[in-house]
Design a protein that fits this description.
Blueprint: E1 4-12, E2 18-27, E3 32-36, H1 43-50, E4 58-63, E5 66-67, H2 73-80, E6 83-86, H3 98-109, H4 111-114, H5 117-130, H6 146-157, E7 164-168, H7 176-193, E8 196-201, H8 204-210, E9 213-216, E10 220-221, E11 224-225, E12 229-232
Parallel strand pairs: 3-8, 3-9, 6-7, 7-8
Antiparallel strand pairs: 1-2, 1-4, 4-5, 9-12, 10-11
Helix pairs in contact: 3-5, 3-6, 6-7
The protein binds adenosine-5'-diphosphate (2 copies).
């Protein structure tokens, strides 16, 4: 079945703001699914609902067959280990090297790997090689360019070989060349790792480059409501 099923989602904030006016879509294995929309249309709200940190007002989200908003917290935490998330900001800890940042998920979830120093080092280097950062393993985030930081965050999000990768604005703040590099890397990684990918972006060019399918979130502008549209990608 689909890895993610979103049905009739609505979010009404207590102050009366209403976004996601009945959003429905499915993400299938092998998809690079792009969530598009201008600022303020509800991309962050949707993302927070997809990863279970925020609850919908109406509708449901099934991740790997489970309704995540009805799962008891410990079960949800276990399920969400199969979902890698690349957060838009604060993805890397500034006091740790790139290698140490990528080692974190193993320390949290795989003590048998983390306690074997050589195995941990090899595993981390393999992850860094996949994003072209093996020569920068011992640098700190502040020593890297914007594009390299995004690649390091990508390596960390993919550390535990998630079935589903959710990437929040992975190219925000990057120049066009670095943006293309990240887009190319997203395609390569999804093909190599077999992870299904959801990318949140406001960049139509990225959508054209990477998406198998996607959604354009509707928004209310000047009193007129545009509906949400399902898109076919070109990949
Ligand atoms: P995007 O990520 O697409 O820019 P957001 O999901 O951040 O959009 O916000 C969508 C709308 O919901 C905006 O109008 C925003 O002001 C509003 N919003 C977001 N979070 C809250 C909140 N906690 N309380 C009230 N309104 C909110
Ligand atoms: P971008 O245009 O992608 O932001 P930069 O001009 O920041 O690229 O960096 C170009 C190259 O210089 C990067 O690939 C990186 O290897 C190196 N670099 C950038 N900043 C630093 C730094 N503070 N310390 C070491 N190397 C750096």
């Amino acid at each position: 079945g689909p890895l993610l099923v979103v049905k009739d989602l609505v979010k009404a904030y207590p102050n009366g703001t209403r976004v996601l006016n009945g959003v429905s879509f499915e993400v299938h294995a092998g998809d690079v699914f792009t969530i598009l929309g201008g600022s303020g249309c509800g991309k962050s709200t949707l993302l927070n609902i997809l990863i279970g940190v925020d609850a919908p007002s109406e509708g449901s989200v099934h991740v790997l067959g489970e309704n995540i908003h009805q799962l008891p917290r410990p079960k949800r935490a276990t399920l969400m280990r199969d979902v890698g998330v690349l957060f838009q900001s604060g993805a890397l800890l500034q006091s740790l090297t790139i290698a140490e940042n990528v080692a974190l998920p193993f320390q949290q979830h795989h003590p048998e790997i983390a306690s074997d120093r050589e195995l941990l080092e090899d595993t981390v280097m393999m992850k860094l090689r996949a994003v072209g950062l093996s020569r920068h393993a011992d640098k700190y985030p502040r020593e890297l360019s914007g594009g390299m930081k995004k690649r390091a965050a990508l390596a960390r999000a993919l550390a535990l070989d998630p079935k589903l990768l959710i990437s929040d604005e992975p190219t925000s703040g990057l120049d066009p060349v670095s943006t293309k590099e990240i887009d190319d890397l997203t395609i390569t990684l999804s093909r190599k790792s077999g992870a299904t990918v959801i990318v949140v972006t406001h960049d139509l060019l990225s959508f054209q480059r990477i998406a198998t399918r996607g959604i354009m979130l509707g928004a209310e502008r000047d009193g007129a409501v545009r509906g949400t549209v399902l898109l076919s990608g070109t990949k």
